[in-house]
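Input record, target 12 of the design panel.
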């Protein structure tokens, strides 16, 4: 039975652990499978991670145990130190390219098709951004019988040139709400600006009126007629 991530979403730590295992399997195969220590270091990298995390080994172990219960991670055999490997593509039922895209989205957050293609260089060489778009569409249109959609095209963020894609393995992303919040802040900023300008104009008008009154008084005392 396929995993329904809409009703059983991955926790943020689980997505980070799973994404890290998927990354290291492709980028450093000689060091894979990973021990808890190596996996923790990979999860807490300062590069190629969004957001950057600071997980403890116990947190990583808890995430591994949760992923094991869903058959997304396995304990590797043949080593004195316990090591772990993922079985994402096989368990979820997606192709290699789909797996690469989802792994990158788990590790780096929302990305455009062009960003995904660039970031995937060490994982898989896509022909072009168009081919990435095709796989993203397939993930977005995945049928309910297979477990439902696994990716979604998000609304274009304020200031961004293109909309970005995000995975649905951890439930519906919250960027839409965040975008609405940014819009509200922008509206408030505009209102505050207009209010400040109105106050400034009012103060300038008062200053001009006072100066005109003083000038009239002075001209009357001097017996000089003002030309307006």
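The sequence produced for target 12 reads:
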């Amino acid at each position: 039975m396929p995993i329904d991530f809409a009703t059983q979403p991955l926790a943020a730590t689980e997505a980070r652990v799973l994404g890290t295992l998927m990354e290291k399997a492709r980028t450093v195969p000689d060091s894979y499978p990973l021990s808890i220590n190596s996996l923790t270091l990979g999860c807490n990298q300062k590069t190629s991670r969004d957001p950057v995390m600071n997980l403890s080994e116990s947190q990583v172990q808890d995430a591994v145990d949760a992923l094991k219960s869903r058959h997304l991670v396995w304990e590797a055999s043949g080593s004195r130190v316990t090591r772990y490997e993922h079985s994402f593509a096989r368990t979820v039922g997606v192709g290699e390219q789909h797996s690469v895209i989802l792994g990158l989205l788990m590790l780096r957050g929302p990305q455009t098709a062009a960003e995904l293609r660039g970031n995937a260089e060490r994982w898989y060489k896509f022909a072009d951004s168009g081919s990435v778009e095709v796989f993203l569409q397939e993930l977005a249109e995945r049928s309910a019988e297979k477990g439902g959609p696994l990716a979604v095209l998000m609304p274009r963020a304020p200031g961004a040139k293109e909309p970005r894609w995000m995975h649905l393995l951890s439930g519906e992303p919250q960027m839409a709400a965040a975008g609405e919040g940014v819009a509200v802040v922008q509206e408030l900023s505009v209102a505050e600006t207009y209010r400040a300008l109105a106050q400034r104009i009012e103060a300038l008008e008062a200053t001009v009126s006072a100066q005109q009154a003083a000038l009239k008084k002075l001209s009357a005392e001097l017996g000089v007629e003002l030309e307006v």
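The longest helix spans residues 175-222.
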